Task: structure prediction
Amino acid sequence: MAESMRQGKAIPYNFPHMTGRELYYIAQAHFNGRLAGDGPFTKSCQAWLETKTGAQKALLTHSCTGALEMAVILAGIGPGDEVIMPSFTFVSMANAVVLRGGVPVFVDIRADTLNIDEQLIEAAITPRTRAIIPMHYAGVPCAMDEILAIAAKHELFVIEDAAQGIGATYKGRALGSMGHFGAISFHETKNIISGEGGVLLVNRPDFVDRAEVIREKGTNRAQFFRGQVDKYSWRDIGSSFLPGELVAAFLWAQLQEGEAINRRRVAMWDTYHAAFGELENTGAARRPRLSADGVHNGHIYYLLLRNLDHRTAFIKRLALQNVNSVFHYVPLHNSPMGQRSCRSVGSMRNTENLSEQLARLPLWIGLEGLQHEVIDAVFKSVDG
Result:
């Protein structure tokens, strides 16, 4: 891949990594005669995730979106119920709530980590509030002690959106393992991938049985296959949240190399961070901020430019040098659906300003040999 880049192709923002065993495991799944969900590879992935995160139960899903939707159902969110979350996030978080008739309530993000501002959560709580959904942006942890304390005080559910957080920790605990539920993504843009895919982490034992039922179309099919019941039937609401066994086979190869993948990404993140100290010192751009209470996973490296016009020009100049950079979320509270179905509490100044300044740089396994080209292009584009 790196050699083809030197022959004039643009350096992409993302390029999916393969460890070398994915296709072998896919062929093995076919040889085993099991392509539908919950086969041996699914079970291996779930066991790995339970061991690494400490979750009571890990349930693979067809997407992180599916995992969030399951978590909202398990939390009992219904018509008129409110769920506090950041507006600087992916639409799946808000959609999961709206699909149950609930109301997403947005609060602003912190200026340093771009995570939900934990100091603004309590003021947004009303008698209708049922849950808080913090998102660990770029694999950098939210202030979970404070968030969990607020939730305990007001008897609220906590659903961690750890879509970007595989392998990252907060005070030694895996992201996604601290709330009642956690959701992780294996989309092709994430550190560990399966094309599409996700996992629901169930962190309280009293929710495990129902989570299995919801995931299996509302039936107790999982108990039937374990021999716990002699037949299965429709027990609850649910849907087909399972991934196929081919997806799990691909994922198993990735998980086996997961720690090595994260180490390589963090090394590239560190290379960027060291290189761009000069830009920050001169005020040309701001580098990411980390949490002193956690360990990140090198998921995203971004720069914050001076304003929207500067960010737009920066991305265009990079493209002229065959480097693809992309911005990220458009704040949900400003979207048509957000204005119809959600509400905001307080100023959203950080959300609006930082979302217009942020530009993400290429960061993927195999970029190492080209990273100096990206760095050179960044300096030329900022100064241009």
